[in-house]
Amino acid sequence: MERNVDSDHEQKSEDRIDGKTTVYCRTKLLDSRGTPDSVWSFLVLLAGFVSVSIVNGCLYSFGVLLPELMDEFQETRARTATVGSMGTCVGYALSPVTSLSSERFGFRVTSLVFTSLLTVALAVSSITPSLALLYFSYGIVAGTGYSVIHIISVVVVMKHFVKWRSLSSGIIQSSFGVGMLFVSQTTQKLIDWYGWRWAMGGWAMLAFLLLLCGTVFDGRENSNLTKKKWDGKEMYRVEVNDVPTKISVLKNWSLLLYCFSFALCNMVFYVPIVYMVKFSEKHLSISRDHSAQLYIYFSVVVIFSRNIYCTIGSLSFVNRFYLYQFSAAFAGLSVLLLPFSSSYIHLILFMSCLGLLDGGIWGLAPLLVIDVAGIENLNFSWGVFNSVVSVASVSGPPLAGFIADKCDSYDPAFYASGVTLIVASLLMFLRKWAQRHNPQNCRQTLVSSEKDYDEVLKIYERETVL
């Protein structure tokens, strides 16, 4: 279908092909907030950085709360760790729905609604009288809030950058280390001074700060705009993907292979981190305070490693997938060697090494999703990616805890985790096969946005064009 509209100020033509609505207009009708790599883009990056720092800081500092919850409710490792796993998994499992909701109601509204929900859920969790109620208040409700804020923050930042996309990806992903460094240490101090309930209440206060960050996010999902000649005149081409087209990314075998490999990797990567306090206390007689300090080394290294890997991945002669495979394989070898640790220095070296390799796994994730799915499909593809990953993540720490309970040792759990990481790395050698079996509309010739800035799709707000 084709439609032309003429007026004194602009000319538009609209096509609808393969579920995509393409609009050609003579004038940009843009403001500064719609321009990629602008000052507003960096303000959005700052808001996204703070949001992801708080979300990931709380999520992955659950290991600090774990011993306290086990003592409080007199439960096993597996049952208690399930609370943290649900917080990571349940909300992320609904990520595709979250992506579609943000397109329907806008990034800003969706973020503010779920930030309020997260704040209330954490406040209720801090006063819950039983572990069963924590499954609901923290595992389900707070977990959903975590996932929505995380997904929206990453997508909004990626869509606001073209020339500096690798840099922005490194910064937004390194916020994990900043958040974990700050939240884990603050949580341990609050536990020492006031107990775990006040510590979780502190998380609720941090979540309240996310409301300010959400106001910066754009109201609608951005569209993709490029120049094109139309009737001898320079027009601006805007593609707006409809829901059926977005769902078609599920036929992208390259994306699904990467999701499955990453799911295996993420299922076990954080097992040593979750159980580090209990492992060091039981096997090396290290106090909980000293064990909690290990998270400092991990977090500091993560801050730099994610930026370094994204910078290296932007080079023309570097294959990002090889970086991911290298990191996953060597992370597996590191975890296999963890049971042989015999001193606190060994644990410091292990956490530092794991933090360095984390950059090649999580740091490159948004860029690799863009590589296999395209920037125009990032919102829904990133939702699918997190959904698949979360399903596997929920089983990792509880399964490791179950093995540790049965064997009365963490060694078998660490061996299984190390082998799984290596298998996840080897799976990506099937990428060529996946590319050959992709549907025609999923095959892309990808370019580096840093090198072909003028040719890459530029991101603008849909309503400013339509």
Automatic annotation (TrEMBL):
What would be an example GO MF term here?
A: transmembrane transporter activity
Tell me the organism. Answer: Actinia tenebrosa (Australian red waratah sea anemone)
> Keyword annotations for this protein?
Membrane, Transmembrane, Transmembrane helix
Which InterPro entries does the record associate with it? MFS (IPR011701), MFS_dom (IPR020846), MFS_trans_sf (IPR036259), Proton-linked_MCT (IPR050327)
Protein name from the UniProt record: Monocarboxylate transporter 9-like
What domain of life does the UniProt record list for this protein's source? Answer: Eukaryota
Task: Indicate whether rRNA processing appears among the record's keywords.
Answer: no
**GO CC, one annotated term:** membrane
